[in-house]
Design a protein that fits this description.
Helices cover about 60% and strands about 0% of the residues. The protein is mostly helical. A hairpin with a 6-residue loop joins strand 1 and strand 2. Helix 2 runs antiparallel to helix 6 and helix 4 runs antiparallel to helix 5. The longest helix is centred in the middle third of the chain and has 21 residues. The radius of gyration is 18 Å and the shape is globular.
Length: about 270
């Protein structure tokens, strides 16, 4: 585990000290980096990228594989996740804390044995919560920053603010800046593998079952293909290598309006 650090800017350090106090108005006040990042449509593309990334952790993926119907529940699951993240970013404090309590209750029932590693897993394991959290928030930030919508300093502020969101679910030792995120990924990489379960999840993401209201639209499938391709392009290079995805250009294209509408309607 990463050693705690009092300064969130220390490379490889973590921080459990919130950057500002929560108030009745919400966990993250107007003007926060969280509202800037989560409020941008590009964060939705980052959320899809996070799903590709999260699938590389066998014990984390086992809970999804064995306790949900990922193909049948794809869009409702995506909507629930987006709704939860948005609630934490914009809702009042009581609503945000109630949403987190519901997720903790669900996590308490998700446990078993990972068929890939043979190791036990539990959705409320702080290590697995850390993996899911870091994959998610780093992917949100990467998507928004790669499109030139935030700078490095605001990305670090976002990561520091999101420590509070992760801790609400029971995660500990959370990276609070880009350097700490990179150090964490270096540490956890020996546990990651593009297992058959991960590859099935990636295939589901690339060829997601479209809701009927989207399937009726002629450009729906190519639009989703573009969105998924951009999401893959946001993955760290080492994650692409694990999957066998080709390296993408340094610049990620801005998704067209049709792509953003596709995600919003999901």
């Amino acid at each position: 585990m990463l050693a705690p650090s009092a300064r969130s800017g220390d490379p490889g350090g973590v921080s459990t000290a919130p950057p500002f106090p929560a108030t009745d108005a919400g966990l993250f006040p107007p003007g926060s980096a969280t509202r800037r990042v989560i409020g941008d449509p590009a964060a939705l593309i980052g959320g899809i990228s996070a799903l590709f990334l999260q699938a590389l952790h066998p014990r984390a993926m086992a809970g999804v594989e064995e306790h949900s119907s990922f193909p049948a529940d794809f869009w409702p699951r995506l909507q629930r996740t987006a709704g939860y993240v948005t609630t934490l970013a914009f809702a009042d404090l009581a609503t945000a804390e109630a949403a987190a309590a519901r997720v903790r209750a669900i996590h308490s029932r998700v446990r078993g044995t990972d068929p890939v590693t043979g190791l036990p897993y539990a959705a409320d394991d702080p290590d697995l919560l850390r993996w899911v959290h870091v994959s998610e928030v780093s992917s949100f930030a990467s998507a928004v920053r790669r499109l030139g919508l935030i700078d490095a300093a605001e990305e670090d502020r976002f990561l520091a603010e999101q420590v509070r969101a992760g801790e609400l679910l029971g995660a500990t030792g959370l990276p609070a800046d880009r350097a700490a995120v990179e150090a964490y990924f270096t540490q956890v990489r020996p546990e990651l593998v593009a297992s058959p379960v991960a590859r099935r999840a990636a295939a589901r993401l690339l060829l997601a079952p479209l809701p009927w209201r989207l399937a009726l639209l002629t450009p729906a499938r190519p639009t989703w293909t573009f969105v998924a391709s951009v999401a893959v392009g946001l993955l760290p290079g080492w994650a692409k290598e694990l999957y066998g995805f080709p390296r993408s250009p340094a610049r990620t294209p801005r998704p067209p309006r049709a792509s953003r509408r596709c995600v919003r309607r999901s």
